[in-house]
Amino acid sequence: VVSQMDKYVVKELQDVNKTLDQIGKGQFEENITDSKCKEFQELSDYVNKMSKSLAENNKRMAYVLGKTNLYIGTYAYNLQEKVLYTTEHIPEILSVEKEKVQQWHSNKDGFTELMDMIKKNAVPDEAGVYLYGDKYIRIEELVNENEIFGVVMDITADIRKRREIEEERDVDLLTGLFNRRGLDNRLNRLFEKPDALGYYAMI
Fold first, then answer.
1. What are the pLDDT digits (tens) for 16-61?
2. Which residues make beta-bridge pairs with 78?
3. What is the band of 197 on the pLDDT scale with cuts at 50, 70, 90?
4. Regarding beta strands 71-78 and 135-144, do their DSSP bridges make them parallel or antiparallel, or are they unpaired?
5. Which residues touch 39 (CB under 8 Å, ≥6 apart)?
6. CA angle, 120 as apex, 185 and 123 as ends, to 5°?
7. How far apart are CA 74 and CA 93, in angstroms?
8. CA distances from 127 to 10, 76, 123, 148, 195 (A)
9. What is the average per-residue pLDDT within 73-93?
10. For residue 124, which of 141, 116, 111, 136 has the smallest C-alpha distance?
11. How far is it, in rounded angstroms, from Cα 52 to Cα 126?
12. What DSSP assignment string belongs to 105-125?
């Protein structure tokens, strides 16, 4: 009886747990092999369908994001687990080697430390935008209890282009000083934080 239990129950459970562990680490191509037990076969079929669905959804998301002109990456993780899921543009946006991101997939600590570091360099007057090296990165996160889903975008080109337009609009080309519109905009921003205004003199 014991040997039969080991063969048809314990080993089957071990195989199922091993495959679920791999799926939990993002290995969505993993499948459970055919079982000799009807009940375990039904469970195996269900797990295999779930794994296939996750893999297809992951590919669809990566495909859609890859067709946009923007560098957009997404990530997801559970605060109580080590596993991290990312899409293909994350290494390029964060200027990190793909091998490093692969390591993060099984242990997210390095990723969360990097994100915390980036978030310390918030760009003034730009909600959710951070300066990361010579890049401007936008980070949006959706938090649902312990689940974190985030979107990261490299908006460097947009920020620089907008600032060029604003400078051409607000600065006199001959003197390099603010024109009337530029001065008004600058003063409005200063008066939004009167405590930090200090003392100024104008002629």
1. 666 666 655 555 555 656 555 555 556 666 666 766 666 666 666 6
2. 147
3. low
4. unpaired
5. none
6. 20
7. 11
8. 53, 21, 8, 19, 21
9. 89
10. 136
11. 40
12. HH-THHHHHHHHHHTTSBPTT
